[in-house]
Amino acid sequence: MKAAILHQAGAPLVIEEIDKPQPGSGEILIQVKACGVCHTELHSVAGEWRLPKLPLVLGHEAVGVATAVGVDVKNFKAGDRADTLVLVGLPPGNFTLPIRGSVAKGIRVLTSAVGTRQDLREVLALAASGKIKTVGASLPLQEINGAFNRMRAGTISGRLVVEFH
Ligand SMILES: [Zn+2]
């Protein structure tokens, strides 16, 4: 399978063929269909954040389909969709997530402290009324380094998503 590999901070990513991993105990293997590109990857490539061991396959905003499950995975099977739940406008205090409905299904949860629930309601109402739309573009994996150059130059309008076919 193809992957964009970070071998050294400050160097461009290198597109390489790597072995398809096998899911370990409690893990699922996901065939990624699309993955958002954000400043997390840009900071990682630039060496501005502490990185785990290199080489490293970047990307944390993926959506795809499970193709295999490891031992001890009971509530997820090949063919299930895997994605990330993004929570914004969080209330103060604690937040309850059902274990069986989230962790056991392999759903990753990201949170944001930016904005309020009222902000989120207003944005969703605007989207539902057709007054706003998502602005974004997709690109093939081979163009990932160019995407970072565009991010540095501030020439991106909306979101960039790498699509895998
Ligand atoms: Zn991100």
What does this structure look like?
The protein has 165 residues and is an alpha+beta fold. The chain has a domain at 2-84 and 134-163: Medium-chain alcohol dehydrogenases, catalytic domain (Quinone Oxidoreductase, Chain A, domain 1). It contains four helices and ten strands; from the N terminus they run βββαββββαβαβαβ. The strands form three sheets. A five-stranded mixed β-sheet has the order 6-5-3-10-9. Strands 2-1-4 form a three-stranded antiparallel β-sheet, with no helix packed on it. A two-stranded parallel sheet has the order 7-8. β9 (136-139), α4 and β10 (159-163) form a beta-alpha-beta unit. The longest helix is centred in the last third of the chain and has 12 residues, at 117-128. It is globular, with a radius of gyration of 18 Å. The relative contact order is 0.18. The model has no long low-confidence stretch (mean pLDDT 84). Zinc ion is lined by residues 38, 40, 60-61.
